[in-house]
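Milestone 3.1: sequence recovery, worked example.
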């Protein structure tokens, strides 16, 4: 006889399978991958804010049911591969030029929801000109600005957003205002421009902040539908690898150091 005898381990495994099956019902489901995210494994370091930011963008697009009507523009930086993860039409732009590329796409395809996704080196250093002029013209797009205070992809050089005293590979003793200038609050700056409609600063370091960031992105797409002008959503994030911290330490450091200088909340609120 070729029958396999059940062992105690087999029994336990079987019980576990039954238990999992009964828990994973449609009614109990609280988390699943939206259609708008591909199943590609993200390349981000453990604890990196980019992955969470991608997910909430994907969720908003799914919830608004605009997957086929949305075009994103990926930057150069750690999120250069965003087009591999977001299951929507995506374009890649040269370093700093994403808002200009998004402008072109929106003008040719005005019925599409168009957004750019840019890091702080991309948007606030090499892309400062494009950012300011896109916002000043009031292009009807959403700009998502990922501020992790550093050039992540290239190995941790100082960014315009690097805090005073913060160490980076190009400010190994900490950012010194006398020689390196002040950190640039470009979000406050674009809020002054007549073309911006909604400007806000969010973070993804805690569940409540993730929800607020997601709500800001959702609102921005709704404003875009109404042709209101440029919406600008900053997301303060962490870069555990270049901050030389564990993911948990980096979230704490973000709360204690980044958020006091980059306070969360709406900077320019729509009047209606
Ligand atoms: C024209 C040009 N200049 C410089 C670079 C090198 N470069 C690639 S990514 C990057 C900075 C990325 O930092 P950031 O935009 O903050 O994105 P992060 O990686 O932190 O998400 C730089 C300077 C480049 N690719 N192209
Ligand atoms: S280097 Fe920093 S920004 Fe880049 S993936 Fe790693 S943690 Fe994220
Ligand atoms: Mg950065």
């Amino acid at each position: 006889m070729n029958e396999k005898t059940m062992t105690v381990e087999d029994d336990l495994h079987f019980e576990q399978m039954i238990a999992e099956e009964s828990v994973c019902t449609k009614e109990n489901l609280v988390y699943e991958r939206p259609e708008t995210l591909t199943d590609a494994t993200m390349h981000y370091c453990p604890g990196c804010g980019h992955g969470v930011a991608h997910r909430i963008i994907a969720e908003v697009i799914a919830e608004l049911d605009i997957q086929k009507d949305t075009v994103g523009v990926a930057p150069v930086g750690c999120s250069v591969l965003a087009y591999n993860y977001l299951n929507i039409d995506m374009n890649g732009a040269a370093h700093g030029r994403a808002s200009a590329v998004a402008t072109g796409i929106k003008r040719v395809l005005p019925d599409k929801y168009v957004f750019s996704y840019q890091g702080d080196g991309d948007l606030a250093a090499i892309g400062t000109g494009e950012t300011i002029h896109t916002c000043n013209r009031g292009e009807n797009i959403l700009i998502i600005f990922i501020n992790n205070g550093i050039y992540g992809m290239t190995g941790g050089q100082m960014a315009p957003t690097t805090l005073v005293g913060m160490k980076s590979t190009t400010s190994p003793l900490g950012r010194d205002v006398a020689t390196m200038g002040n950190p640039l609050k470009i979000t406050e700056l674009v809020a002054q421009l007549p073309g911006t409609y909604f400007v806000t600063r969010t973070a993804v370091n805690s569940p409540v902040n993730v929800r607020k960031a997601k709500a800001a992105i959702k609102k921005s797409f709704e404003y875009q539908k109404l042709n209101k002008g440029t919406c600008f959503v900053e997301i303060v994030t962490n870069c555990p690898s270049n901050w030389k911290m564990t993911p948990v330490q980096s979230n704490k450091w973000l709360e204690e150091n980044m958020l006091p200088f980059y306070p969360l909340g709406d900077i320019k609120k729509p009047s209606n």
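The mean pLDDT is 94. The longest helix spans residues 207-225.
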